[in-house]
Write a structure and sequence with these properties.
Elements (H helix, E strand, L loop, with lengths): L2 H9 L5 H20 L4 E3 L3 E8 L2 E5 L4 E5 L2 E8 L1 H13 L1
Helix pairs in contact: 1-2
């Protein structure tokens, strides 16, 4: 499933596809902006997106026989909710 599939599914409940597209893009932009600013995003019955900050660190590379500096970076961790996991397990078991 991609973004267009989500827009088409939302468009079934609205009168126009443009309205659905604006809605979906606004939701994704809001989540993206919150994560960029370092906020945790919780979506009830779905899960939590948590930004993780990793410091820079030295790492030894044996092939070149020297230390490299790994740049600091930001990762996004997703933790699914218990209800979402239960729903996934039910769907997997029923197949």
């Amino acid at each position: 499933m991609n973004k267009n599939d989500i827009i088409n599914n939302v468009a079934k409940f609205t009168l126009r596809k443009n309205d659905a597209k604006k809605f979906v893009e606004t939701v994704f932009d809001t989540i993206k902006d919150a994560l960029i600013s370092g906020e945790k995003v919780t979506i009830q019955n779905f899960g939590v997106f948590i930004p993780k900050f990793h410091k820079s660190k030295k790492m030894y590379e044996p092939k070149k026989n020297k230390y490299l500096l790994i740049e600091p970076r930001k990762r996004i961790k997703f933790i699914p909710s218990k209800k979402f996991l239960q729903l996934l397990n039910l769907k997997i078991k029923s197949k």
